[in-house]
Design a protein that fits this description.
It is a single chain. The chain is mostly helical. It has 3 helices and no strands. About 60% of the residues lie in helices and about 0% in strands. The longest helix has 21 residues, at about 50-70. The chain is elongated, with a radius of gyration of 25 Å.
């Protein structure tokens, strides 16, 4: 049984013990590639991260404009 939060690898089969920590390495590689895709400029010199930030700004400006037309008057 596990008494503390630590993982006791002496009771695990050898194949499973070798796989411990594998998912953290996979997550690290995926996050690194995602950051690389967002930071490296494309053929036109545009940086995707800046394009994404501008898209969020445009969306929020449109959203704020649409919300400004709403009223709080309750019908009787």
């Amino acid at each position: 049984m596990f008494r503390s939060g630590a993982l006791n690898t002496s009771r695990l089969p050898a194949r499973r013990a070798r796989q411990l920590g594998q998912s953290s390495m996979e997550y690290t590689v995926v996050v690194f590639l995602a950051v690389l895709v967002l930071v490296v400029p494309d053929a036109n010199g545009d940086i995707p991260l800046v394009q994404l930030a501008n898209a969020f700004k445009r969306f929020y400006n449109g959203f704020a404009y649409a919300v400004s037309f709403s009223t709080t008057i309750m019908p009787l």
